[in-house]
Amino acid sequence: MNRILKFSFHTLSALVLVALVSLAKAQTPPQDSIFIIDQPNYELSPHTGLTRKHWEDAALYLLEGAFSHIENIDDPMLFPDHPGAARPVRDPVSVTAKLEGLSRTLFGASVLLKQNPELQINGIKLSDYYRHHLVELTNLKKSSTYIPPRAKDGGASHNLVEFGAVAISLFVAPEVLWNPLRKAQKDALAATMISYGDGPTVPSNFLTSMFSASLNPRAMRSTKRC
């Protein structure tokens, strides 16, 4: 468990750094849109001055930006397109793109929800939002978010990477994200994640995701958390 928490924290740190660098490169950003490192501690963190509290504040900062695009619990985690600064967005947006937004923001949300399960942003309770969308991934009646299990002869899939990220977040805050789900919901989600984790991969970060997506749901179902 400690290794999972450390891995999630390091991954979150990398995501926050990327976001902060992107902000720094903006030509004329409004002053109130910039994340400020308040009282850096260079004794504890010589290179950046960042403490765990700073990372938590940065995660909240990023989530506040993300949820500024969410009006209700049914809205997927999608952001406005910035031509030239992001990958082209398909129309209609693929379910994998929605899964990507869900899984990447859940990295930060899971850490904060571990500490405060009642956390709300933009009038939306984050625990309800993420549980709702995790369940919708296996909802056959919701074609805009449904992700079918990988076919037995299916090849490597981007879904593997995102489900690997989801698996790590589930381990970070299972009491908020996993335990409240009904058994049928857990079984459906685990089966879909494992189908990709047990599939083929490529020599990149897909490999780490394969282990997370395959082993973590199995572990979750085999413990008292189920």
UniProtKB/TrEMBL annotation:
Keywords tagged on the record: Signal
PANTHER family: LINALOOL DEHYDRATASE_ISOMERASE DOMAIN-CONTAINING PROTEIN
Superkingdom, taxonomy of origin: Bacteria
Transmembrane helix listed as a keyword: no
First and last residue of the signal peptide: 1-26
Domain DUF2264: 51-207
Keyword Signal: yes
Native source organism of the sequence: Microbulbifer rhizosphaerae
UniProt name for this protein: DUF2264 domain-containing protein
InterPro entries in UniProt: DUF2264_N (IPR049349), UCP014753 (IPR016624)
